[in-house]
Amino acid sequence: MTPFDYSRASDVADALRMGAGVQAKFLGGGTNLVDLMRETIERPAALVDITGLPAEITERDDGGLVIGAAVRNTALAEHRTVRTRYPVLSRAILAGASAQIRNMATVGGNLLQRTRCSYFYDDAGSRCNKRQPGQGCDAIDGFNRNHAILGASEACVATHPSDMCVALAALDAVVHLEGRGGARTLPLVELHRLPGDRPDLETALQPGELITAIELPAQPIAARSTYRKVRDRSSYAFALVSVAAALELDGDTVKDVRVALGGVAHKPWRALEAEQALRGGKVSEAAFRAAAEAELAHAVPLSCNTFKIELAKRTITAVLGELAGAAR
Amino acid sequence: MSIAEEAKLAVRGAIQGVMEKAIELAPDSWMPGGKPDSLIATKHGSIGASVPRIDSPLKVQGKAPFAAEFELPGMVYAALMFSTVAKGRIATLDTAQAEAAPGVVLVMTHRNAPRMESMPVFLSAEKAGGGDNLPIMQDDRIHWNGQPIAVVLAETQEQADYAVALIRASYEQDAATTSFATAKRKGTEPGLFMGQPLKTEKGSADAAFKASAAKVEATYTTPRHNHNAIEPHAATVAWDGDRLIVHDASQAVAHTAWSLGKIFGISEQQVHVTSPFVGGGFGGKCLWQHQVLGAAAAKLAGRPVRIALSREGVYRLIGGRTLTEQRLAIGADQDGRFNAIIHSGTVATTRQNGMPEPFILPTMSSYGSPNIKLDVEVVYLDMLANTFMRAPGESVGTFALESAIDELAVSLGIDPVELRILNQPSEDPLKGTPFSSRHITEAWRAGAEKFGWSKRSAPGTVRDGEWQIGIGCATATYPYHRMPGGAARITLTRDGYARVEIAAHEMGMGTATAHTQVVADRLGLSRDQVTFAYGDSLMPGVVLAGGSQQTASIGASVIAAHHVLIKELLKLAGNDSPLAGLGTDEVGTLNGGLAKLDDPSRHESYVSILTRSGRDHVAVEGSASAPLETMHWSMHSFGALFCEIGVNSVTGETRVRRFLGSYDCGRILNPKTAASQFRGGIIMGLGLALMEETQFDDRNGRVMNPSLAEYHVPVHLDVPPIDVIWTDIPDPRAPMGARGIGEIGITGVGAAVANAVFNATGKRVRDLPLTLDKLM
Ligand SMILES: Cc1cc2nc3c(=O)[nH]c(=O)nc-3n(C[C@H](O)[C@H](O)[C@H](O)COP(=O)(O)OP(=O)(O)OC[C@H]3O[C@@H](n4cnc5c(N)ncnc54)[C@H](O)[C@@H]3O)c2cc1C
User: Fold this and answer.
1) What's the whole-number mean pLDDT along residues A72-90?
2) Could you say which architecture CATH assigns to the domain B67-175+228-317?
3) Is the pTM of this model over 0.80?
């Protein structure tokens, strides 16, 4: 680990001032950043600890929720309103990492955690365009079982590893940001970028910009939502494929639906095509399957992950079937 | 206490003793016609009691010192830099920045490392313990991707880690062979194990197979596995003049001391290796380059060194299990009786150690067949030397053998349990020697009954919601070993306490506890009167904690020392003793003393003997007899494994629902620690079955998942209720009647799970691990 300065921010202004340096980074729970520093993949000159910033979950009058960026993953997953009105979010968080890591991890840090691609992690021995633009990618012809099937590029096939973000993508979450240029908001699905030819640019954040909160709009549909994560062991493994979904029925007709996928792309993947195919249609397993087919029509497999396409289709179909079953 | 009082006590002991029988001396060797160890018959002693581990209080208090916890004055911390190419030369190695970094005491590379010999590679001599025989930082050559090329010593671990990251290296690469497939295309060579080819044939298996009425033939593959003991490898090293002190995490202290002596050109007496506690060994905690580099750097810096590998360091530096590609063919008659078994295939190994994973081992002893053909071929790769890992050979060999038997059972419509029982041999299938003790059929019957095997349904017919449910079975097997070189010292003190010293190892399996029990029974003492000391190369014995042989080796060593002790005690007892005139064959141990075998009233306590003879202690040493028992008898442990699994019909995920192991391993010395050994082995087997796989990048020989986040071992949720039962039938040819239980647990589990998956889904997976993509 490269030596660094450490300071602790007491409010947002403080954090922005301290984080203004080019080589400064915000420190949440450190469960990802510190690991990457140990691997010398991240070498910030200064860390600004933002875990002292307001860590509150506020219910708005319209029924929405505002979640402070420093809220710990455990606290969010256990929050009563989240569990009852946005179960998909609670389940997604609890499907991730371990209890110890969730106790440390913050909402802001979870959003910005970096890929688990093993070539990205191997600073000493492998090529990676994300670490060093233009260097080449050793994952494309290497171990890419966990890698992307949607939206990848020739430069990068890595996936975004977060479970929580998949739920947030399904819930139309909005990210609140503050930077030197002032405050702004961004739909969560626009926070993360697809890799294109600059996989090193992972988000739409400006340098020094701070995530202050996540906003969950009031979403009656979210009360009937769930998360399913498919992985190589029962717990403590990243998703091969995950599905966050919410479903609202009107008799036998899909009134409204949300679907997002994890483990398949460089960003949490909102499955708009599947949603489109389903909305207003009749509920049936065939319809769910057809929607999944539509979403994955553009999927491109890599040498070790062809199975993910079928797995994603089946998991979408099963999750929607489960939600429809519960609705009836 | 006065002599009179002691005499009174002794007499009281003798009176109590009238009711009991003295335990006679154990035989010093096991030969045809000879007697078994008298301890196998004891019913009310310490042996067989569920004694909690004596090291647990220390461990839960953090008071058990592990290798990386020894504090030495002036100690510095080491960090390693690893090569990133598989073969070639170091072209440039710029250490200037690292040398200038804060706290750095030394940067050692091939340019300044002291001259030393290569490690004597394991099994090349009696006490050779090295993982490879390459020059260690003696030149600029690279032999594998991950080889250490620099050691940094600094005042703190953090400073050392930082400085290592400042070293810049470039390489001139040579063409390396890192792909198994490519190497195989160029041709295989016969696998040699300790100089002997892993090849044997009885009858003419190919012809018999062809002529058989029923046949199965398939290829099974298993991937590389890495060692992942909870304690990463570490050593704290210091020089005292030309004496070398190594606090190691070791399952081979005597081997390590001797080998380090050879490497540094000093005698083995000048090397002191201690290893009081080891956080798991599994075959990986022998001598690897880190202890050598630590000692070399300590010498160069003139300061003690702690070298503790990171988890990545373990993956780069410590060999694991190599991959196997096995062909298994069984020919049988219509009733299922085997005519031919052919087990052959190819594994990858390296020139620097040559350890062909001997996957044919289980096939040498498990079933009878008039025709058997076994052959392990190898290809040599430029990679880290592979090594022993829990049940080398049996762990992965049983996957092929026991899967193929299941396939045969299915094709013949015979219950797989019955097919296995039907093909039990009446003598060793290859050597023709008689079995010392073989009760696998009892184990099968008891296991099947307890598990509810008779409720098994046809493949693909049981469902629980999305889950397809199946049950499967397989045989577990591991041989009895006892290696030469065992020896022990017993010191008996006038207060009636005994201390046994032997250069053996406690890696968490309960060795110290079980042998405290054994020694107590053997000497007629209570457990709190016995101290079992181990883990120090200055103690007697060359006792590898490997091959599941440590229990037998310690047992035989203590027996040998006990013989000497009794002789010595009778001498001291002299003519004024109730034992006067008796020879060693006529006495046994009873109630803290010796007694005449057929007249326990002739008894004198140790306290009395030592007190009367004016001695405060008597110390003796004995060397274990040569392990001839395995020449006369075929000695193997077995287990009948059953498991129930669910395969998710949507996702292909496999989850194990329950598991039962029914073992025949001779006498169980301590049911509590034994159950943990079996369970731990089974859990490791579940990892092998479902998820463990080292991602070795064929393109450059680099391990791509050197971390417990990406290399999956089972988590708690993956571990179902595991039931363990055993026959507890003593083996009359083994010390204490116990055959050793360290490794058998992992064997057979891969096949039991795969066979259950077949029963659940009708799909046969012949390639481990059983990941979901293979079952979708
Ligand atoms: C072994 C292991 C297994 C895991 N398994 C899973 C899993 O299965 N599923 C899953 O979803 N996750 C998993 N995780 C990842 C875990 O969820 C993340 O590490 C965690 O959410 C990161 O949160 P943190 O607060 O610790 O972030 P940090 O490590 O502190 O920071 C991460 C990044 O976010 C930036 N950052 C933090 N807060 C802010 C802010 N307010 N504004 C701007 N930037 C900010 C930091 O600068 C840094 O770049 C796993 C992690 C580990 C180590």
Assistant:
1) 98
2) Alpha-Beta Complex (3.90)
3) yes
